Amino acid sequence: MIVQPKDLSLNQVLMQWPDLVNNLVGVLRLRRESIALVADIESMLHQVYVAPRDRDCLRFFWWPGGDISKDPVICRMKVHLFGAMSSPSVERFAYEEMRKILVLSLSLS
Known about the structure:
Blueprint: H1 10-13, H2 24-28, H3 41-45, E1 59-62, E2 73-76, H4 87-108
Antiparallel strand pairs: 1-2
């Protein structure tokens, strides 16, 4: 049984920001810089925590054991998910924050 939402989904109301993920020109620039960062975006997003005050925006239903004849459990995501409209922006923001930390730590050593 496929459940069709009667109302809007979160992805339908999220504002889509500009695609900030590097294009090929940005990747080629790598040859000019002294430090390179490479990341698996899907795995990385599961390491970026959602602030507790924002977790209600990422609620979902879970049917333990897959039995949809029973009442679902309401769960909230604690980490960002891959595939959301906001994923590219979250990925880029986390990447930039980690880059700043890395550059600072290298300059202190």
